[in-house]
Design a protein that fits this description.
This protein has a single domain, classed as GMP Synthetase, Chain A, domain 3. It is built from three helices and three strands. A three-stranded mixed β-sheet has the order 1-2-3.
């Protein structure tokens, strides 16, 4: 049986960033098994939440469900991010 390798937030951030052009990516974890990711990318425009999450999952491949036990994703367009941040 293969021993599961632990991921860290920096590795996951790099993988997600590699899948998007000019994205803002923040990844947090308290246990290096359960992660929270904020991804702000223009590629999310005109996409429903499920499609946005699928784009993020594609960056991580087989790590999801294995080394990454759980991933909570907030996927926003730059305009949505500015609106949430209170910028105009």
């Amino acid at each position: 049986m293969r021993e599961a390798r632990h991921m860290d937030p920096v590795e996951i951030r790099r993988l997600i960033e590699a899948g998007f052009s000019d994205a803002i990516v923040e990844v947090m974890s308290e246990d290096n098994t359960h992660f929270e990711a904020l991804v702000v990318a223009a590629e999310f425009a005109d996409k429903r939440p499920l499609a946005r999450h699928q784009l993020v999952y594609r960056c991580l491949g087989a790590l999801v469900g294995n080394e990454i036990h759980a991933l909570s994703i907030t996927a926003l367009t730059p305009d949505e991010w500015r609106e949430r941040s209170g910028e105009t």
